[in-house]
Design goal:
This protein is α+β, with helices and mostly antiparallel strands. The protein is built from five helices and three strands; from the N terminus they run ααβαββαα. 41% of the residues lie in helices and 13% in strands. Strand 2 and strand 3 form a beta hairpin. It starts with 16 loop residues before the first helix and ends with a helix.
């Protein structure tokens, strides 16, 4: 593990995105103070008992390669078209899910690698569509409480509503 910072952030759904962003920024800058501390050494000192097919500290890995500021990113996301998700078979997933983002030529490129024993291709496609929608919503509604941001596509919202209705009916029948 080279140049890996393991971060943990707690989401307050009542906070707005700008406040949450500042919190994540603060946590990240604090983590840089310990960047010379070896990730492998940390795992060893934690006396982690390895589990087959599991990463020692995290399941989701996010990589952002950026060279532009956030104003340019806003333009890129809001002007981006939904693109075909190309599926490349054969890559071995080192984490449950690894998302790489790269900015280039007025576009934001996504590259996702995931454990096929945990996630289906259709679910990952839906997650990526929701992620794109979330990014657009965050750029337009930075002062809105996080819980009020609509980040789900119509299909996911319908499934969520149906599942909540089922859950409520189960609670009342018990």
């Amino acid at each position: 593990y080279i140049n890996v910072l393991a971060l943990r952030n707690h989401l307050n759904e009542k906070a707005d995105f700008t406040s949450y962003y500042q919190q994540v920024k603060h946590t990240t800058l604090q983590a840089f103070e310990y960047q010379d501390y070896s990730f492998d050494r940390m795992v060893e000192e934690l006396d982690y008992q390895p589990q087959r097919n599991r990463n020692p500290l995290f399941d989701f890995f996010l990589v952002l390669h950026n060279t532009t500021d956030s104003r340019s990113l806003h333009k890129q996301i809001s002007n981006a078209e939904i693109e075909t998700i190309n599926t490349g078979k054969g890559a071995v997933a080192r984490f449950d899910m690894e998302l790489k983002l790269r900015e280039s030529a007025n576009l934001l490129y996504f590259n996702i690698n995931y454990n096929t024993e945990l996630y289906s291709e259709s679910l990952v496609r839906e997650l990526m569509s929701n992620f794109k929608l979330l990014m657009m919503q965050l750029m337009q509604q930075q002062e809105t409480q996080i819980e009020g941001i609509d980040y789900q596509s119509g299909k996911a919202r319908t499934i969520k509503t149906r599942n909540l209705a089922r859950l409520k009916s189960l609670k009342t029948s018990i």
